Amino acid sequence: MLRQISVAFLVLGCTSLSILASGQTAVSWKMKPSPLQTRWAKEVSPSNTLPEYPRPQMVRPNWENLNGIWQYAITSAGDQTPPASFNGEILVPFPLESALSGVQKTLQPDQRLWYKRTFNKPTAKGKDRVLLHFGAVDFNATVFLNGKKLGNHTGGYTGFQFDITDQLKDKGNELVVSVLDPTDAGDNPHGKQVLQPRNILYTGSSGIWQTVWLETVPAVYIDGLKMVPQVDQQQLDLRVNTPGNAAGYSVEAVASSNGAVVGTIKGKPNTDLQLPVPNARLWSPNEPFLYNLTVKLLYNNKVVDTVGSYFGMRKIEIKKDENDQERIFLNGKYTYNLGVLDQGFWPDGLYTAPTDDALKFDILAIKSMGFNTIRKHVKVEPARWYYHCDKEGILVWQDMVTCPNNSADARKNFEKENAATVAQCFNAPSIVCWVLFNEGWARYDQQRLTEVMKQMDPSRIINGHTGENYDRESPKDPNEKWKSSDLTDIHDYPGPGIAPALPGKARVLGEWGGVQVKTPNHQWNEADGWGYISIPAAAFARKYGFMNRHLKIFEEEGLSGSIYTEPFDVETEENGLISYDREVIKMPVTQLRQIHSAFVPPTSDVAAAFIVKDIDTTNPDNQYATLLEAYNKGKKDGPFLLQLAQMALRVNDKPNATKVSNDYIEQLKAPLTRSQMAFINKFTTSSRDKGFALLMDNRDQINKTLGQRQADARLMTIIYSEEIKPYVQDAAARPDWSKIEAKTKQYGAPGEEIFLRAKTIHLLNQKDWDNFAAAADQYVGKCAAYIAPNELNTYAWTVFENISDPTHLNNAANWCQHLLKADNNPAYIDTYANVLYKAGKKDDAIANEEKAVELAPSSDKKTYQDILDKMKKGEKTWK
Q1: What are the domain boundaries of the chain?
Q2: Less CB within 10 Å around the terminal CB: N or C of the chain?
Q3: How many of the other CB atoms lie within 10 Å of CB of 311?
Q4: The pTM is what?
Q5: Exposed e or buried b for every residue in 745-782, given b needs 16+ CB within 10 A?
């Protein structure tokens, strides 16, 4: 019955659906090239862009989808008014950086992204209102209609709406959206998105990335539902929210199963109601039964608004089993949460799945492999993702999107988005656990925020800190580590491992695994591919089975859940059970299901839509001799050279790796792609290599694209090896620094930086304190922004301990200023205070040491306090 009623609402909605409506013309949109593409990308077109109804738990018939072709422009972030002209077309709702957007550009923190499109006024009667909905816009969105500002929304993962009725005209309504998104350079929660993708961090998704749509509603309408299943009380707690003055209005809710009414309730809007659900069929992964729910809003007993919805009756809790172990119980039964860490990225759409079938495929794939749980990792998905989890039957641990840093604004944004996330996802029966912090990332006030989350939702498990063992500032007392949380949770790579037992808490393994199995021809960037450990395809089944046998031992000892990293490769992170393009499974699905059946029997058959091919378990490097012979006979096309160079490196044939890579690099032309940049950076090992000149000529772009100054690091490694190392290998050497400087000068900024660093470190190691201090001052003066804080701190501390000259001490105090701008670390403050004290600036020194004592972890407080006491007494703090 749920399917029938939901479809009925969707069909009604399609009567007003208009993708290329309201003055839009045919376009020449084309997907941009991508290193990988999923099978669903070919189904995407401007006239068929995520057409499904976007809000399955509150379906209303009168709606219009605004997905499709919009205009876009990129201007300076300071521009407050829409530009006079736009750069081109973008396919909404695919993020600006994605191939499917048709743009594939990175939005920089100092830029503003603009969108524009037109539409006609939807059909409305009498006092009807028209609402404009945005599923999600990352991060800061300002919306204009017909030249008037509607409002602003911050938060990249949750939806928002505007009542646009009074701003509408009959035809040609101009909708403009401006977006600011610093990605990882601001105080906005951004999950795994970064400007410079690498390792566990991936390409950003700026701007509109979920469906935009219009909806026609009555003057007073149903604005939201809040549902809490109460299995023991045989009822659904229900709240029907309406905006504005609801005097004279009432609500009626009807729950049905297979066409038969099972419960009804009448009452007032904006009040707590109890809808009877006697002898409920309980929702679980084995039987994901959903009740249909119809909610009506009445005025003077006349129906003015109706929405279709659904709910599941289930109960999640922590209880002791028959062996007195704290366990996770679902519907009164111990249920091992066998899960995966799902990141929700797509090679062609990034944060946005190409189609609804693609979105559903991931859930079907995870269930088909024998898992019953998904941990949705630092991302909030569109409502339809949770709908598919509800329908197919999978338990969801929903992460909060990580606090980005320790600033007051970041914490404010984090807490605001946490509340919005819980409110938006609250009704999904599949969600059984909220996850607050991950691995100590910008963790603060953990107990308070855990308790706040429990107050927001007492019906679910709260995981206050997953991977707490990775938190460097973790409390020493185990009883303090997960205070007020329902779980103890560690991460262990590759693992497995088990969290400690604490009263009232179940033990889980929040992340483990991370086994890289390469899938040739299905990799985002082979040159940068990685895993926590790497296993040949032929050995993976044996290794995975062995690891799971150990996991089973931990389960018998009390482990209640485990989250394997991960179901799908993500960009260069090749730890997935399935390739990033969802084409290749790295172990036959029958073997996976058999291994997992030791924990939970498969909760469904392998889905018909789960179409993947088994990985080739033969070693591709066995072909190396044959391919090398073809190369020596003159085969030199680019893809062949790219494959052969990687293979030569794997089989440790370094001479041919250099030769083949040089031939490949010689064919490259600007503009270079990210993959080409990574290849050049990896294979360039001397100034004689073809890539060296490309690194020199394109260093700024490569640094920006690859991040972590990778071009500069590679160049400096080569320059040091060839121009400096021969003269400083002997620790006692007294090189002619002026001659070395003359040699390194030809390389510009990288040459100057590595020369200054090498000179500074060599003099430090020789304990030539005065010359070291002078060299360090020159180095810091030119390169402070690139010196690691710990290294800079070492330089300053070395001066403090070994030099009394006021000039050098004052210089060291200036170095510390760079440190304190980067990190308010008590150890750095202590160094600064000691340097100031030795330089004779006692009052400033005491003030800073008091700050160090205040900020220090408990284990270091006594050390800093002893130093502070000496300063106050006028005693030496150095040896």
Answers
A1: 47-217, 224-311, 316-614, 784-878
A2: C
A3: 25
A4: 0.85
A5: eebeebbbbbbbbbbbbbbbeeeebeebbbbbbebbee
Distance CA 326, CA 560 (A): 8
Residue 74: closest CA among 3, 1, 164, 178: 178
CATH of domain 316-614: 3.20.20.80
Q: Distance (Å, rounded) from C-alpha 676 to C-alpha 690?
A: 13
CA 238 to chain centre: 33
- Chain CA centroid to CA 331, Å: 31
Overall fold of domain 47-217: Jelly Rolls (2.60.120)
* Architecture label for domain 224-311: Sandwich (2.60)
d(CA 259, CA 681) in angstroms, rounded, equals 64
Crossing angle between the packed helical segments 674-683 and 710-719, to the nearest 10 degrees: 20
In angstroms, how far is CA 537 from the centroid of its own chain?
A: 28
Report the number of secondary-structure helices (H) and strands (E) in the chain.
Answer: 24, 36
Report residue 42: phi and psi, to 5°. Answer: -70, -15
Cα distance between residue 271 and residue 526, in whole Å: 57
Q: How far apart are CA 143 and CA 365, in angstroms?
A: 38
For 425-445, letters b (16+ CB in 10 Å) and e give bbbbbbbbbbbbbbbbebbee
At residue 580, φ and ψ (nearest 5 deg) are -60, -35
Given this model, what pLDDT does residue 45 score? Answer: 96
- Considering only the C-alpha atoms of the chain, give the largest distance between any 2 of them, rounded to a whole number of Å: 96
Which SS3 state, helix, strand or coil, does residue 153 take? Answer: strand
Which residues have a Cβ under 8 Å from the Cβ of 239 and sit 6 or more positions away? 225, 226, 227, 270, 271, 272, 273
* Residue type at position 760: T
Q: At what angle do helices 737-744 and 749-765 cross, to 10 degrees?
A: 150
Spatial separation of the C-alpha atoms in residues 333 and 314, rounded to whole Å: 11
Return the half-sphere exposure (C-beta side, CA atoms, 13 A cut-off) of residue 429: 29
The radius of gyration computed from the CA coordinates of the chain, to the nearest angstrom, equals: 30
Averaged pLDDT, 169-183: 97
User: For 423-473, what is each residue's pLDDT tens digit?
Assistant: 999 999 999 999 999 999 999 999 999 999 999 999 999 999 999 999 988
Which backbone phi and psi does 844 adopt, to 5 degrees?
-65, -40
Cα 759 to Cα 771: distance, rounded to the nearest angstrom: 10
pLDDT class of 27 with cuts at 50, 70, 90: low
Nearest of 221, 667, 792, 852 to residue 680 by alpha carbon: 667
Q: Is the pLDDT of residue 554 over 90?
A: yes
- Burial pattern 140-156, b for ≥16 Cβ within 10 A else e, equals bbbbbbeeeebeebbbb
Helix (H) or strand (E) holding 656: helix 654-666
- Could you give the CA distance from residue 43 to residue 869 in angstroms, rounded to a whole number? 72
How many whole angstroms separate alpha carbon 744 and alpha carbon 734? 18
For residues 197-212, give the mean pLDDT.
Answer: 96
CB 645 within 8 A of CB 683: yes
Q: How far is residue 188's CA from residue 7's CA, in Å, rounded to a whole number?
A: 37
Spatial CB neighbours of 555, under 8 Å, sequence gap ≥ 6: 336, 562, 599
> Would you identify the CATH topology of the domain 784-878?
1.25.40
Q: Kind of pairing, strands 173-180 and 111-119? A: antiparallel
Count the neighbouring beta carbons within 10 Å of the beta carbon of residue 496.
22
Residue 785: both structure tokens together: 């922004």
Residue with tokens 């609500």, as numbered in its chain? 251
Tracing tokens 């794997």 back to the chain, one arrives at 650
Long-range contacts formed by 682-689: CB under 8 A, 24+ apart: 682/527, 682/528, 683/527, 683/645, 683/649, 683/657, 683/658, 684/714, 684/718, 685/658, 685/718, 686/718, 686/721, 686/722, 687/718, 687/719, 687/722, 689/658, 689/661, 689/662, 689/665
> Where are the alpha helices (H) located in 82-237, listed in sequence order?
none
What are the tokens at 749? 């900024």
